[in-house]
Amino acid sequence: MLIERVPEDTVTAMVGTSRDKTVAAAWGVLFTVALGGLIVLGSRNLNHFDAALVGYTFATLFATFGIAYRYAMWLRRPPTRLYWRRGWSVFATPQFIGANFVEALRRFVLAFGANQFIFRRGRLRGLAHWLIMWGCIVAALITFPLVWGWIHFETIPGHLDTYQTFVFGFPVHAFAIDSITALVVFHGLVWASFLVIAGVMLAFRRRMVDHAAVSLQQFGQDILPLVLLFAISVTGLMLTASYTWMKGYAYDFLAILHAMTVILTLLYLPFGKLFHIFQRPAQLGVSFYKDAGRRGEQARCRRCGQPFASVMMVRDLATVERELGFSYEMNPAQGADHYQQVCPRCRRALFGLAQGGAWAERLTERMPASE
């Protein structure tokens, strides 16, 4: 029987992939179990848990496992792993830890709270992203604590026109039914729906009139997330209209339809474009990595001698490329040991010279020998 020997590097890659999946699955189970424990704890042994919302709960548990699993796999990729560790080590540098903390808060507010990086690409695009983001944040801050039983409301005995708010079973705040607080709290999902719908409409407008966006968009990555968010918002508003103005007409059907849209979105969350919600904060670490690179020693091009990047970044790029199996080592006779030690301008020059040399060699081969 013929036995083919598998190359050693292939076996190592296969074992590494299996190990990564095992570690990622362990993180997924850990976060899922932790959330389940918090649900039981926060709802006081499920005493304040609404059994009618069990579908939402299982969907969030599934989404938690999927998000933790995918995030752990993402962090184990060589480029992400290196920049993740570098970002934290740079941020925690004792000499700059205080200034870094203040700067992190400032960048978080500008980049994520105000979506500054999106507004730079276009005002309407930034507004669409901002409306969708804050609408989803407000909806999540209201929905998940209610679904998990972390927050519930009770009327105060003897004062039926007053609600008492309980957080994790502890009384926190009381307010009158006809107060501004009640209007804001009990209609918070309505306000969030308006924000999301407005943002989705602006996003769809861009995808219909921007030819560059139309040519690159994909249904599963660009259209489906907007459809799901729009469906959640519209069905939620229809529920409000049903019990407010229509005396509960078709409420049961609308409740099931709304639940289906929410559950489908939660199931889609770990796999689609919305996963970038959890990836984007890591960009803060990359920004501090760049700051450290600017403060540190600068690498000079081995060809022209001009500084073009930090020594740390050049060294890290070469390390990542080796881990990914890419070999960009150069002949020391060319003046550099690795391709990353050459600045982008000289790389283009070397590329042009190499092409010119190849053409000259080819022409020489085709020319007839002189007599």
Provide structural commentary.
The protein is 67% helix and 8% strand. The chain has helices at residues 8-42, 54-75, 78-91, 97-113, 116-119, 123-147, 180-186, 188-209, 211-216, 219-245, 251-268, 276-279, 283-295, 311-323, 344-366, and strands spanning 151-156, 159-167, 170-176, 298-300, 307-310. It has 15 helices and five strands. It is mainly alpha-helical and 371 residues long. It has a three-stranded antiparallel beta sheet with strand order 1-2-3. The chain has a two-stranded antiparallel ribbon with strand order 4-5. The radius of gyration is 28 Å and the shape is elongated. Mean pLDDT is 86; it is low at 1-15. Among the domains are: 10-76; 296-363, no CATH class. The longest helix has 35 residues, at 8-42. The chain starts with 7 loop residues before the first helix and ends in a 5-residue tail after the last helix.
Neighbour order of strands in the largest sheet: 1-2-3
**Biggest sheet layout:** 3 strands, antiparallel
Task: Indicate the overall shape.
Answer: elongated
**Total number of β-strand segments?**
5
In whole angstroms, the N-to-C terminal distance is 61 Å
Rounded to an integer, what's the Rg over CA atoms?
A: 28 Å
Approximate helicity band: 55-70%
Number of helices: 15
Q: Which segments are poorly predicted (pLDDT under 50) over 5 or more consecutive residues?
A: 1-15
The average pLDDT is 86
* String of helices and strands: HHHHHHEEEHHHHHHHEEHH
Q: What proportion strand?
A: 5-15%
Given helix and strand content, the structural type is mainly alpha
